[in-house]
Design goal:
By secondary structure, the protein is an alpha+beta fold. The chain contains eleven helices and eleven strands. The chain folds into three domains: 162 residues, Regulatory protein AraC (Jelly Rolls, Sandwich); 51 residues; 58 residues, Homeodomain-like (Arc Repressor Mutant, subunit A, Orthogonal Bundle). It starts with 6 loop residues before the first strand and ends in an 8-residue tail after the last helix.
């Protein structure tokens, strides 16, 4: 595999378009045709919620292999690599939310959605999770029935889903006067970093493109993600390097050039500084099933 596939939906190669709203389908849909397995891939503009009602699923989520057990909910944000090996007895639903819809949700709710979109989240559903199940059921019903007011209704249920997921994950967002403005600014910064990651743009260039000062971007990143803008960019580069080392056959030198680095030795030092391992050691340990010493 040369690159990690980018799909709009399972098996559909993207052309830059995205869903206008929200899409719900059974977890089995089109799976049997692929021998009950979905190879590692990602969606650039789609966030997905995997609601497993019965059975279990072997999952590759970013750089980890996890056994998902029912009942559970797994949130896979846009851009995050994921692949699955299903058991025929598994049953559930996939709720796909477009980036445009997520922008609306983020504007209506606390900062939890943006915080949740930084990584994959897996949640076992217990008795106290009844509300989150109800919200997903209502999203499915509204999406399927296409009644008057569907957009408003689904937006509300999706928003409630993320608020409840944030509560169950015990996220405690701070209340700040500039919260909404910072949310919007950080989300725009996050999207631009994803789009321009391999260009190695300085923070000042992102500020110029966003039309804000460096101090304001710094405060937004600290408030929402608790990191500086430069650290956020570095973390994004490291995470993409890990994905390429794990899910492609690229040697470390090719990963270096793929990510826009020009000096393999510098790339190796950069990677080791953040992970404790050289790129080659990281790939080897992952293939052997050993966990790296530092994330």
């Amino acid at each position: 595999m040369k690159h990690i596939p980018h799909y709009q939906l399972y098996g559909d190669e993207g052309d830059g378009s995205e869903l206008n709203f929200v899409h719900c389908e059974p977890m089995f849909n089109r799976i049997e045709q692929q021998n009950w397995e979905i190879s590692p891939h990602r969606h650039d503009n789609l966030h997905q919620v995997f609601w497993l009602r019965a059975g279990q699923v072997e999952a590759q989520l970013e750089t980890e292999n996890i056994l998902l057990c029912s009942p559970s909910v797994t949130l896979v944000p846009a851009g995050k690599v994921h692949g699955f090996a299903y058991e025929p007895s598994a049953a559930g639903s996939i709720v796909t939310v477009s980036a445009a819809m997520m922008q609306r949700v983020i504007s209506l709710s606390p900062r939890w959605p943006t915080k949740l979109l930084d990584q994959v989240h897996y949640l076992e559903l217990k008795e106290e999770s009844a509300d989150i199940v109800q919200y997903l059921q209502r999203v499915e019903e509204e999406s399927r029935n296409k009644r008057v007011g569907r957009v408003a209704a689904v937006t509300a249920w999706i928003c409630l889903f993320f608020v409840e997921l944030g509560r169950l994950r015990q996220l405690r967002p701070e209340q700040v006067p500039e919260g909404k403005e910072y949310l919007h600014l950080f989300e725009q910064f996050r999207l631009r970093v994803n789009e321009s990651l391999t260009q190695h743009l300085p923070v000042s260039e992102y500020c110029s493109r966003l039309g804000v000062g460096e101090r304001r971007l710094y405060r937004a990143c600290r408030t929402i993600a608790d990191v500086s803008p430069s650290r956020y960019i570095q973390d994004a580069l490291i995470q993409e390097a890990k994905r390429l080392l794990i899910y492609t056959m690229m040697p470390a030198t090719m990963v270096c050039y793929e990510l826009g680095f020009t000096d393999p030795a510098y790339f190796s030092r950069f990677f080791k500084k953040h992970t404790g391992l050289s790129p080659g050691e990281f790939a080897k340990r992952h293939r052997e099933g050993n966990t790296p010493v530092k994330d």
